[in-house]
Amino acid sequence: MADDFLIFTPDAVDLSRSPLRRGIDADTYVLGAFNPGLTRLPSGNLLLIVRVAEALREPERDGHVHAVRWTPDGYVLDTHAMTGVDMADPRQFEFRGAAHRILGLTSLSWLLPVELTPDAAEVVAVHYDRAIEPAAPWQDYGVEDARISRIGDRWYMTECSVSAQRHCTALHTSDNGLDWRLEGIILDHQNKDMLFFEGKVDDRFVALTRPLGEVYFTYPAESPYVGGPSINLATSPDALHWRPLEAPGIRARKGSASAMKVGGGTPPILTDAGWLHIWHGVERQGKVGIYRSFWALHDRDDPGVLLRLEDTEPLIEANPALTAGIAHQMYLPTPVVFSTGIVDAGDHYIVASGEADLACRITRLPKSRFS
Predict the structure, then answer these.
(1) pLDDT (tens digit per residue) in 243-260
(2) SS3 of residue 36 by DSSP
(3) Strand, coil or helix: 124
(4) Which tens digit of pLDDT belongs to each residue from 155-166?
(5) What is the spatial distance between Cα 263 and Cα 252, in angstroms, rounded to a whole number?
(6) Tens-digit pLDDT profile for residues 185-221
(7) Name one Pfam family in it (predicted).
């Protein structure tokens, strides 16, 4: 049995069953089917909730760039003049000369549940009838990057909702892992990569968060840390109302391969040693950077206490051999792996990742790797 392989790729998506068919007839394609949430269902099967980034085949036409937007009556195409628009990043376009950094997307993302065998070796079913798409004005440019935690007898899923109104984290809940209810916004503008710990601490929910901002302040010259985005922690009595912890979480350190940016990856799971969390770090290179997966352990009774931080030797790195068969679909200039889900499988963990912002990758890691 392979320990590292792609389980779901863009060609596996049937776009005739896409939510976007309710509104637009423009030619689209799957830019990526990636960054899947992962959980185990009551049947024992595994479930991926895959981010499908569906893009316009020709976003530029007649001197304009087009973008897909959800409305309560269906999907529409917005038109923007190409004058003053930067199209250097294939995932988005940027308006030059604006008072603030203003982006548009060349794709709209929706979430597709994909059921796997208990060992994650094969796809059992693709649940188009349970696809999760925008449902509110604050999601009208898409829903992205699901993370799933089972806490007690309920499943909790966070995702990033994108709109001109705000860029926020929304919560969905489920009683069976397959049928989801949108509970609403739980973190406001640009607080991304929110991951629920898979269990409570002192009868409270705990989560990792990653707020973004336009400016960061410097550490003292002698500090081992680099200013910039960091992984923080928060607690909640009900999973809806959150209070940040004052203790710092994971910060980028000088000299590490993650000095450009850090962010959450897989929801923390409880082990004998503490809460195990796989996170992503970014090394500066080009416009996007190199994304790798690292790991950390948080104290089981006080998650604000970091017991171990591994940020020098990557746990998972991008593997071009995995995407060789679909290399013609690659669009990112730098290696990217983004781990988004983990389940216990006895003597090893099954980790789900997005590979190259293109496909879903499964990695089996022996538990001895974390000793």
Answers:
(1) 999 999 999 999 888 888
(2) strand
(3) strand
(4) 999 999 999 999
(5) 10
(6) 999 988 889 999 999 999 999 999 999 988 999 999 9
(7) Glyco_hydro_130
Residues spanned by the domain of 321:
4-370
Alpha-carbon span 335 to 288, nearest angstrom? 9
% of the chain with per-residue pLDDT over 70: 99
The DSSP code sequence of 40-95 is E-TTS-EEEEEEEEEEES--EETTEEEEEEEETTEEEEEEEESTTEE--STTEEEE
Return the C-alpha torsion angle 291, 361, 357, 115, nearest 10.
Answer: -140
Strand, coil or helix: what is 14? coil
Using CA atoms, how far apart are residues 158 and 240, in angstroms rounded to an integer? 11
Q: What is the pLDDT of residue 1?
A: 62
Residue type for position 85: V
**What region, left, alpha or beta, does residue 179 occupy, with left being phi > 0 and alpha being psi -120 to 50 degrees?**
beta
Q: Are 318 and 333 in contact (CB under 8 A)?
A: no
Parallel/antiparallel/unpaired status of strands 102-105 and 92-95:
antiparallel
Beta-carbon contacts of 306 under 8 Å, excluding residues fewer than 6 positions away, are: 249, 250, 296, 297, 298, 299
The total of structural domains in the chain comes to: 1
Structural contact between residues 36 and 49, judged by C-beta atoms closer than 8 angstroms? yes
If residue 170 lies in a helix (H) or strand (E), which one and from where to where? strand 167-174
CA-closest candidate to residue 37, choices 234, 174, 186, 162 = 174
CATH at residue 142: 2.115.10.20
CB 368 within 8 A of CB 43: no
Question: What distance in Å separates the CA atoms of residue 266 and residue 351, rounded to the nearest whole number?
Answer: 8
